[in-house]
């Protein structure tokens, strides 16, 4: 039946550490302690997890037995035999505990034989119950009550007023097993990927993507809509639902945009934990990324200052008189066509080929990262100290979420897959024109060690106590801007066939949604059932001809006063176009109008009417910011209805199309361009990628999010333009080609007055103020 029960049979003293190792080993399903009486101390017995105590002799299991609670843990075989005998004679189970604890271990051969037979029955009973616990468990979600206030307090005040459930309680309510949880404090926990193996036969739930129209610089509230929707589905319609969100970068948190936990009465809590550090995934990415950068510069220095022989002797050192290649070095030898494993058998030419990556300093594409908006790191010079022996070069920093390792985290579907992707990351080109990878540097094994915990999604909850996975947060321009494949897959198993997983895509539908479909869905094999398209009256007014909107500046008068003409113009242009883009992929669209207090009833009704006329399955106003899940009930019902209809999902392009044609397809069909124009550099790069065998990768367009075109100031639906492709780059580990449309910054800068002016900590209560 696939169970692995480990027996500890020792004559020496047993330690708690030995027991703890078995507790943490997912391959061990139960432990049978066959130890001398002197070793069966309370500390040893109670070090064993109750769910692995097949003898049922830990204090907790015994206590449950005495109380008559047989729903959890294991029952001792002897006690189970007694219960069976007593029940056959109609004796109430209240006496079982005493009988079980005093049942003699010695006696006649018949008694011993009978005891062993009954113990066998009990073992079958325990195994049967263990197998039952491994199956999908119905949810028993205890939602938290909301009492919305008017006027709506600040986000952090709302978050702090609600006490989240302990994360282990939330995990139990949604069917997670204790061994699948790794707690980080009281309110968040990592979830182990072993869940996918346990529930691999469980049908997936419904898959919902939240996208948006082309946004203003203020953002239109996709995260808030996502959270309001799941609160409505689970807390009010009593349908299982999971939100899957991106982890925010600390760059915008301390810059101008603020956090990304939602807002008002539709938030992930505790919001300060969500926005600051979380479980350290971005720090792990930073460490891994910068280890690669350090390895690049160190390798170039050593190759420039040492002979082939000296390099070889240091790369393959003699230990106790014996030289051995490490596994990663043997892998490199095989890629070079050198099928030898004895260092002494290499020829001088073999040695030279093996030890020299011969990186071209002008063609290194890998940069260092930091999770802070720091404009002065965009271009730097490294190697200026005399110890670096003149090995100076220009490079720069990106913000951490722009690292290719972040994109890999978001697209990997297992630890093994992540290891493979990290290994094939291209960090630069040799002087002979060959790509140099992280595997060539010998660093890929260390990278997966740094990332082994980051690959597990983090479980949190909304203000109404519904579950949320927070995992990954790749840049939405040079990367695909979606949360992780693994979070979505875990959630789809947990919600059950009739449940919903709601995830979001960065920026407008022309960018985040297109990449979600063509890159993420192609990688994951998952197919969406519904698109929720978020719109706001203010963004529609902007696309209808309103004046420019700037973050931090007061809104112009037309955005505060009723203006049906501007609203209609935005609906006829950008809203209609974004609905059409979703229909290119064969997915039904529900428009969610994120209502602000300045919106009038006439404006709201006009948007909903015109959205339906433009092809939306439904269009509803949403008041989750002020009311929580109750304010998104109409949206939840509309999504439930749309998800019940068949989805005819299709990709926009065939992956085997030439790179140029894939770019042209996105530019003309999604953005509305007449054609594309490739720079000479872009043409050369495409030729190079085709030569290297990268031509069948999907396309990840890097362009402005503020317009359907490449011109940020062109709102609505620009026409009559040719899309310029300035350069074409590749993230081979993540698995996509990214053309650069115009100039893209991968390191934001701080504004004149950043958010950090308002952020502080009370030294007595340790309460944080100023986050939003």
- Helical coverage, percent range: 25-40%
Separation of the first and last Cα atoms: 51 Å
Instruction: Determine the structural class based on helices, strands and strand pairing.
Output: alpha/beta
Radius of gyration: 30 Å
The tally of strands reads: 29
Query: How many helix segments?
Result: 29
Which blocks of ≥5 consecutive residues have pLDDT under 50?
Answer: 93-106
| Rough outline | globular
Mean pLDDT across every amino acid position: 90
Quaternary structure type: single chain
Main pleated sheet: 12 strands, mixed
Quote the beta fraction: 15-25%
Task: Outline the structure in words.
The protein has 772 residues and is an alpha/beta fold. The protein contains 29 helices and 29 strands. The strands form 9 sheets. Strands 3, 4, 5, 6, 7, 8, 18, 19, 20, 21, 22 and 23 form a 12-stranded mixed β-sheet that branches. α23 (537-543) packs across α24 (564-584). It starts with a strand and ends with a strand.
Compile the SSE list and pairings:
Layout: E1 5-9, H1 16-23, E2 30-34, H2 42-47, H3 59-67, H4 77-88, H5 96-102, H6 109-134, H7 155-161, H8 167-173, E3 181-183, E4 189-191, H9 194-198, E5 206-212, H10 222-236, E6 241-245, H11 250-254, E7 262-263, E8 266-269, H12 271-275, H13 281-305, H14 308-315, E9 318-319, E10 322-323, H15 327-335, H16 348-355, E11 359-364, E12 368-370, E13 380-382, E14 393-395, E15 397-399, H17 404-411, H18 415-423, E16 426-430, E17 435-437, H19 438-441, H20 444-450, E18 458-462, E19 467-470, H21 485-495, E20 500-504, H22 509-524, E21 530-535, H23 537-543, H24 564-584, E22 589-594, H25 601-613, E23 618-622, H26 624-627, H27 633-643, H28 659-671, E24 675-678, H29 680-691, E25 722-725, E26 727-731, E27 736-740, E28 760-761, E29 768-769
Parallel strand pairs: 1-2, 5-20, 5-21, 6-19, 6-20, 12-15, 21-22, 22-23, 24-25
Antiparallel strand pairs: 3-4, 4-18, 7-8, 8-18, 9-10, 11-16, 13-14, 16-17, 18-19, 26-27, 28-29
Helix pairs in contact: 4-5, 4-6, 10-27, 13-20, 14-16, 18-20, 23-24, 24-25
GO cellular component, one term: cytosol
Enzyme class: ligase
Pfam family, one: FTHFS
